[in-house]
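Please review this one:
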Amino acid sequence: MLPGLRGMSLDILYISHCVPWPPDKGDRIRACYSVRELQKHHRVHLVCLARSAAEAAVASEVREKCASVKIHVLDRNRAIARGLLRFGLGQCFTTAFYGTPELHRHVRSILEANPIRATVVLSSAMAPFAPKGIPFIADWGDVDSEKWLQYAKMRPLGFLQRMEARRVRNVERDYALKSACTLLTTPSELALFRGIASEAPMAVAGNGVDMHAFDPGAPLHIPDEIRRRRFLVFVGVLNYFPNADGVCWFAESVFPELRKRVPGLELFLVGRNPSPKVLQLQGKEGITVTGEVEDVRPYLAAARAAIAPLRIARGIQNKVLEALAMGKPVLASEEVCRTFQPEIPWGVTCCKGLADYVGAVEGLPAAPSADMRIADATRRRFGWEANLAPLLAELDQIENAL
């Protein structure tokens, strides 16, 4: 137990827009390890949304250790309709999309049955579910309103994206001012949010990586069909706009020149739900779109390097941490590197354009071996327990005030 905790386990309500298992994508990863850390010290009551009945039914050690669990399956079509209606009335689309009445009922049922002393809310999208009269911690992670502003520059109907950015920002600010503390994942996100809600209490609680799962020294079967190939790899959900936009830009603007400089070089795009535009890359020379795979680690282990060419990036990119933990160099865009300021992690090369990517690839080792210096530096900096200590410290403050 962390110093300062008195040892009195509290009943904590954890509200999330996603099921916190398995930890296989950004928000689920943060939710999963946050709940795990909370379970070491407190009784956790989980209320969250699932995208399907199958997702809601998945078994998990994290689930088994919760004091109670309420999962509602979100009807996407109804959620979109609700969001559009509220947006047309001048409200925030995001909070309306997630604002299902059934989840409000789940929250009330837990409050009626348990002595909840504090709430942790993951994402400003779920802020309206925070029960009144109970101290809550706003785990915004990233400043989502800023992401909407970035979308407005790159997507059609940018004026609508800017309207949503303003409305999301109002939600972020209003609930941050009501919270016991707002947590952001990086110093740069914290600095940005200080300009939005300067009077709100806030702190950095960074992301980490599972060093046991992503361990370059652990036995791992690598199929011959990828072991023998020389490739770069991108790992991530491929219908998420920043990911899809980034890999398409890289495949069209950078990779052809890399193929000229390094004959036989390939690019593997590994991740679930490739967008139609990403799927079209499958026909290009040297590019393989795998779709969802059972385990991404063999692809990381066999790759010469991982890429993170995102042109929109907020918070910490878990894909970067996982590659580094496996001892792999990462070739990252300026936007991704900026999220790690003031110190870019060991093993990340910042690529501002084509020339940087070419130079970085030409400098890679001939064999895809793990660089233990990269893995060890990642282990020291990105442990979950240390990075989530501010979350537990804030709950300690709430406990001390009871």
Notes: The CA atoms of residues 208 and 382 lie 4 Å apart. The mean pLDDT is 94. DSSP finds 20 helices and 13 strands in the chain. Residues 224-381 form a domain with the Rossmann fold fold (CATH 3.40.50.2000).
